[in-house]
Amino acid sequence: MGDDVRAAVDVGYPPSGGARAALVLSDSPEFARITGTRVSMVDEVAPYEPGQFYKRELPAVRAVLAELTELPHLLVVDGFVDLDPAGTPGMGRYVHREFGITVVGVAKTAFRTAEHALEVRRGASARPLHVTAAGMPPEDAATLVQRLSGPHRIPDALRAVDRLSRGLPPV
Fold first, then answer.
1. Number of neighbouring beta carbons within 10 Å of residue 85
2. Which residues pair with 119 in a beta bridge?
3. What is the pLDDT of residue 3?
4. 77 phi-psi bin (left φ>0, alpha ψ -120 to 50, beta other)
């Protein structure tokens, strides 16, 4: 994997409990082609705490990344890297610190303190995505998200990994 492989990750929470982490892999900068998928279950998750979402998601992300023989050089996460301009870490920052890989955060909804997130509009949607990053300049991350494959607001790779994290086929 390494320098030519990118991944997108998401975590779902089945009604039966625990967490399901899903990962899609691609060898193209735009995620034009999915080259592999991984899904990993974690039996127990921390309770939800506002601003502390990483406590729920990080164990599941660790589990699905552990299934790879080599880490991708870039990971797109559903959420924020940093929660505010001062650098309060979000889930993406914890992943960056732990694994040393570039992380691009793509959040579907604004977070009250994340004024630093760059807004990216895709497709015909008037609603922006909120982009943050660790390991690359934010402007480059926003450009990357703008160029991700798919005609809709949510890039195809994030749609696929969201479906996998909910136990559905990536279609």
1. 11
2. 130
3. 62
4. beta
The fold for domain 2-165 equals archaeoglobus fulgidus dsm 4304 fold (3.30.2170)
Distance CA 36, CA 26 (A): 7
Those residues with Cβ within 8 angstroms of residue 48's Cβ, 6 or more apart along the chain or in another chain: 56
Q: Residue 147 corresponds to which tokens in the numbers above?
A: 């160029």
Instruction: Give Cβ neighbours of residue 106 (< 8 Å, ≥ 6 apart).
Output: 76, 77, 78, 79, 129, 130, 131, 145, 155, 158
pLDDT of 37-49, one tens digit each?
999 999 988 877 7
| One-letter identity of residue 31 | F
CA 40, CA 36: separation in Å to the nearest integer?
Answer: 14
pTM above 0.85, yes or no: yes
First to last CA, the chain: 23
CB of 110 closer than 8 Å to CB of 137:
no
Count other C-beta atoms under 10 Å from residue 147's C-beta: 14
